[in-house]
Design a protein that fits this description.
The chain is of the alpha+beta class. It contains nine helices and twelve strands.
């Protein structure tokens, strides 16, 4: 095989792999393994596409250069700012400002680092995923003075989850029949009810894509059911804005606070390579009653996720007068 033929075949294989992922993105579907896993890293597919273009140019494979131009053009289109998770700013009067933090502590290993971060940052609401029994006990012992209100699903390993709040909470059903705990609550934020829901669906593991889709679908069902109620849906979604199942949640009217604050593609996972390379799969989604002015990503020791801290502002809705 000549060098030219080897270069053409290599470029063609690179273009075919990238095209399969980009094609699913274009078709608004998450496809089958390994497409859902690769969709999380869609921006980084620019590298193999560019490598293929270089090979096509070196080998003077002109059909390949056209193929590369189409693939790179579609990638650029999808990476440009899009309407998903954005929208117009609410124009009602300001009711309250609050800081929301979400953190996956990886089987409880980063509990101490989270406690230190919470004590330093003093967010108003904290969503904690993979908070097993020891983690839950530590949070209760260390943070109860400043966060007297909590809702939790107790569990071992990755199944435990906790919501901590400075605001009074009353119980809400949460997401039922999920593999990992997803508790819910209604917070009394200065006299206004705000629905809080923790998100932690299963990741898109090979052979378990149906579970991932089903649990993201339940989160979408929750989002669609709270029409008119100020809502914060936060946690480890195991999905990025390039997954159709995640965009379906945004299609209900929720908006991504990090995107509103201008940080829509800052990676949160895996923490060991972020922010140089990674995917944003940890999100704080808010209803149209909220604006967002700041998003920060905290590096905590002993977890594979970066914590996300956002400042959001609740506005009065003209359709739902404040009580």
């Amino acid at each position: 095989m000549t060098r030219r033929r080897l270069g053409i075949w290599t470029a063609a294989l690179l273009f075919a792999a990238v095209s399969a992922v980009v094609g699913c993105r274009l078709a608004d579907t998450d496809g089958v393994t390994p497409v859902p896993q690769l969709l999380a890293f869609l921006p980084w597919l620019l590298a193999p596409a560019a490598a293929g273009l270089a090979l096509a140019l070196l080998t003077r494979w002109w059909p390949g250069t056209i193929w590369a131009a189409v693939v790179l053009g579609l990638l650029a289109w999808f990476l440009a700012p899009a309407p998903y998770g954005k929208g117009t700013e609410p124009d009602g009067r300001v009711i309250a400002s609050l800081e929301v933090l979400t953190s996956n502590v990886e089987f409880g290993r980063a509990t101490d680092a989270l406690v230190a971060a919470v004590r330093e940052e003093r967010p108003d609401v904290v969503f904690v995923q993979e908070c097993e029994y020891g983690c839950a006990a530590t949070l209760r012992r260390s943070l109860a003075e400043h966060y007297p209100y909590r809702r939790s699903v107790e569990g071992a390993g990755s199944t435990g989850s906790v919501v901590l709040s400075r605001f009074p909470l009353r119980p809400a059903a949460g997401i039922q029949d999920s593999t990992m705990g997803m508790p819910g609550a209604v917070a009394d934020v200065r006299g206004h009810a705000v629905r809080l829901q923790l998100a932690h669906p299963m990741p898109p593991l090979p052979g378990q894509l149906n579970v991932w889709r089903r649990e993201l679908g339940r989160l979408r069902g929750f989002a669609a059911s709270v029409d008119g109620t100020p809502t914060v849906l936060a946690g480890d979604f195991n999905a990025s804005q390039d997954h159709a199942a995640f965009r379906a949640i945004l299609d209900t009217g929720l908006r991504d606070a990090a995107r509103l604050a201008g940080s829509g593609r800052t990676p949160t996972w895996p923490a060991r390579t972020a922010p140089a390379i990674g995917a944003q799969i940890d999100h704080v989604l808010v209803s149209a009653d909220f604006s967002a002015s700041d998003a920060r990503f905290l590096d905590l020791a002993d977890t594979d996720h970066r914590a996300l801290l956002v400042e959001v502002t609740l506005h009065e809705s003209p359709a739902v007068p404040a009580r």
